[in-house]
Amino acid sequence: MSLLILGIESSCDETGVALVRSTGGVAVPTLLAHALHSQIEMHQAYGGVVPELASRDHIRRVLPLTEAVLAESGQRLADVDVVAYTRGPGLAGALLVGAGVACALGAALGKPVLGVHHLEGHLLSPFLSADPPEFPFVALLVSGGHTQLMRVDGVGRYELLGETIDDAAGEAFDKSAKLMGLGYPGGPALSRLAEQGSATAFKLPRPLLHSGNLDFSFAGLKTAVLTQAKKLGDALEARKADLAASTEAAIVDVLVKKTLTALKQTGLQRVVVAGGVGANRHLRAQLNAACAQNQVRVHYPELHLCTDNGAMIAMAAAMRLQAGQQTANRDYAFDVKPR
Ligand code: KG4
Ligand code: ZN
């Protein structure tokens, strides 16, 4: 059965809307159109996301973006079969905008709605690429709020293998960048600067690298970067690129090593990388090299779909429904799960 699914993402600082067509069976659903508005510029002046401003901007953007994807795909709102939205985790006020709009549209159209877990959206985002992965695979989920390794046997069949015990990888990028005065969002800024520096200039810790398990810890690294920055004092400015490169190398080393351990432990030959940090070029290069050596296939979402977007939410909903894992519901008394 063919289903037209509208997906809305509003968990943090990007408003994303997309239309996905599911044809049922085992065929991978297809992305018809997606539109995104990033609030980065708006929050930049404050050095981070201001929740109240985020919510207000989602309100301004979500309907125009919905109109844009309908126009681009040549579909009519009345033909949408299911309205999916990000139910959490994320900022409560921001989530409520997407959930409210999705449920209002669903109620008005008489169509069911489906709340999607934001991380499942990231996890399944590589299925939006031209060369989608096959199950089973190991997933490395690296975003601003999460760092997890998972065994994925199918839609909804996820086994957590390990995760961070403190900061997420994206947080480590963002906080280190902030210490170096690189502004928000720190990850991409630090990574750009790192290209001009030496990764071996500073000796930084690789926490839990040899712990034997698949857990991560990045809080100590952030402290080490702070100590190094203080020690440099006035010399920091001249050594910033080196410190950035060394920090990036430390984070990437741990992510790659643990991913290889997860592959070894599970015996799987396929890995999927998802979440904002998956856009990191150094991570991609290191992981590609390591996986090539071990005859492991790596799948990434397309670069522009690594960070938050509506396409991954519509895709996750489509795959859930197609797998019979979940049914959309007509209870429009929506709720959100910030944590
Ligand atoms: O998945 P995402 O868009 O939002 C969350 O769900 O958290 O991830 C955002 C995170 C931020 O911490 C950001 O700094 C990081 O991903 N990020 C990067 C890069 N692009 C985004 N970190 C390192 N290198 C990048 N190129
Ligand atoms: Zn995200």
TrEMBL record:
Pfam family, one: TsaD
PROSITE patterns referenced in this protein's UniProt entry, alphabetically: GLYCOPROTEASE (PS01016)
CDD domains: ASKHA_NBD_TsaD_bac
Transmembrane feature ranges: none
GO molecular function: iron ion binding; tRNA N(6)-L-threonylcarbamoyladenine synthase activity
CC terms in the record's Gene Ontology section: cytoplasm
GO biological process, one term: tRNA threonylcarbamoyladenosine modification
SUPFAM superfamilies reported for this sequence: Actin-like ATPase domain
Name of protein: tRNA (Adenosine(37)-N6)-threonylcarbamoyltransferase complex transferase subunit TsaD
